TrEMBL record:
Pfam families: HTH_1 (PF00126), LysR_substrate (PF03466)
Name of this protein: LysR family transcriptional regulator
Transmembrane regions listed in the UniProt entry: none
Keywords for the protein's UniProt record, in alphabetical order: DNA-binding, Transcription, Transcription regulation
Stretch forming the signal peptide: none
Domain called HTH lysR-type: residue spans: 3-60
Length: 306
């Protein structure tokens, strides 16, 4: 038996209108299409549903039973489909987003606050992880999407660039390079040659970009040794304070109020890291996750340049 939803809809309209022509007008069908649908439905059920006269269409006993039983079922189906469509388009529920620590601290608090204001039915849960873990969680589907520093390869991920964050040098106040800084605000990368460095370790998405910039400026490991590798920016700042070395940091790692005990200098030529949102390729996001993705993208792409 192959009874279609369309056949049942036409039948119920005929049962209500008691006319093939009026049914056709209501449903946007020709009278012959209505008649054909009823013949096909009766053929599938092997029972006569309608008695046709020259003036009206009457329901048989079988037709009355079908109309009585099918009408509420089709209405329930329509209500269910509308409810499913509403779920698909409504921005509500929990959204899990992963971000690396520096980006979490510098960018996400304002985004979460905006989400609370603009999407009150969405609960945004931030998962604060190292970059490699962020990418792994995006790929596994443990989170809906992630905020990262440009990965070496995207592979199975889709991304959008949001902003660019330049690297800066962090030095103790009495360091000789502080006095050499051009116009008191910047240093050249090659001026770091011969300096001991305290850098973020390779779990950071920024480290490979720092290494490339140092090498390009003649400050490779043989000339500017990395004496300490750390996982957190605060640890690096304390080591610089202790005189262990100087550091290179993303601009977003520097607090808005600055570092009272340290000096920060721009590095020339400017080298930037790209900050991007990433998600699994060819996977649609739920409505709530898409709404948060759009909100984060909108806020971060309108930030003033560093």
């Amino acid at each position: 038996m192959h009874v279609s939803l369309r056949q049942l809809q036409v039948f119920l309209c005929v049962a209500q209108c008691r006319s093939f022509s009026q049914t056709g007008q209501t449903l946007g069908l020709t009278q012959s299409a209505v008649s054909r649908a009823m013949v096909e439905l009766e053929g599938q059920l092997h029972v006569r549903l309608l008695d046709r006269t020259t003036r009206e269409v009457l329901l048989t006993d079988a037709g009355q039973l079908l109309a009585q039983k099918a009408a509420p079922l089709l209405q329930e189906l329509a209500d269910t489909l509308a409810e499913v469509a509403d779920v698909g388009h409504a921005a509500r529920g929990q959204v899990r987003m992963a971000s690396s620590p520096t980006l979490s601290a510098a960018l996400m608090p304002a985004c979460i606050a905006a989400c609370n204001r603009e999407l009150p039915q969405v609960q945004l849960q931030l998962v604060d992880r190292l970059q490699q873990e962020v990418l792994a969680q995006v790929r596994s589907g443990d989170v809906h999407f992630g905020l990262v520093v440009e990965p070496p390869e995207l592979g199975d991920l889709d991304c959008i660039n949001l902003l660019h964050d330049p690297f800066v040098a962090v030095l103790p106040p009495g360091h000789a390079l502080v006095q050499q800084a051009q116009d008191a605000t910047s240093l050249r990368w090659d001026q770091l040659r011969g300096e001991a460095l305290v850098l973020l370790d390779h779990a950071s998405g920024s480290r490979r970009l720092m290494d490339a910039a140092l090498l390009a400026s003649g400050c490779g490991p043989e000339h500017s040794p990395v004496v300490q590798e750390v996982g957190h920016v605060t640890t690096a700042f304390r080591m610089v304070e202790a005189g262990i070395g100087i550091s290179i940091m993303p601009g977003l790692a520097i607090p808005a109020q600055g570092l009272s005990s340290l000096q920060v200098r721009d590095l020339r030529p400017q080298v930037q890291r790209a900050i991007m949102l990433v998600r699994r390729r060819q996977r649609s996001l739920p409505a709530a996750a898409q709404a948060v993705w759009d909100l984060v993208a909108r806020r971060l792409t309108t930030l003033p340049p560093q």
